[in-house]
Amino acid sequence: xxxxxxxxxxxxxxxxxxxxxxxxxxxxxxxxxxxxxxxxxxxxxxxxxxxxxxxxxxxxxxxxxxxxxxxxxxxxxxxxxxxxxxxxxxxxxxxxxxxxxxxxxxxxxxxxxxxxxxxxxxxxxxxxxxxxxxxxxxxxxxxxxxxxxxxxxxxxxxxxxxxxxxxxxxxxxxxxxxxxxxxxxxxxxxxxxxxxxxxxxxxxxxxxxxxxxxxxxxxxxxxxxxxxxxxxxxxxxxxxxxxxxx
Length: 246
Ligand code: ATP
Ligand code: MG
Hints:
This protein is an alpha+beta fold.
């Protein structure tokens, strides 16, 4: 990233932080006073399975993956209260944004966080033992309160995954945008040229999109190889549109 002032990172305040009333604490730790970073975007999100799976794609197939998806969608902490199944997604901006938010978060594993960095946010997290149907221990889930992008590349992927350009003020957009001339809808894992019942409008003529999303959509529509999948592009358009994760 050339302009350090425009460096950005994605932070997620996860369902366990909301449940334990730690939202204010996390926001305070990440405040401009403590980190020098400012908000570029923020929203409350009912995380769909689609978004969770795309976000945690790198962990697919691992023993803790199903539990990780249940965790980020709010199904672990609020199984009976869909209206509470949400995370707070924030884009922080400023020099060393990625590094600074990771520092406040601390080590991934809350036990390691307590040993290595007392006082970091994740030192307040917990580890939950995962068992199979017979009660045998098969792994663990780390309820660590906050997500923070690990690199500039990951931050770009994640910010584009969670936020549309128009959810970030124009002068705070770190990545190229383009105005679409296309109209397309999404339903059942496919793009549709016209509205059909239960479809969601992904893009209409005149909409501002991430340029990389627009390019990927064009390639997908032409049946050509795209740098990312359809779900990576459309997931953010389905946020807060659908209910029923668990
Ligand atoms: P995050 O991406 O949430 O900021 P991280 O970058 O420190 O965390 P990742 O390797 O990206 O760590 O893992 C993403 C999430 O998956 C972790 O926050 C944690 O909840 C869970 N996780 C990662 N590794 C393990 C593991 N070995 N066992 C259980 N859960 C894990
Ligand atoms: Mg990570």
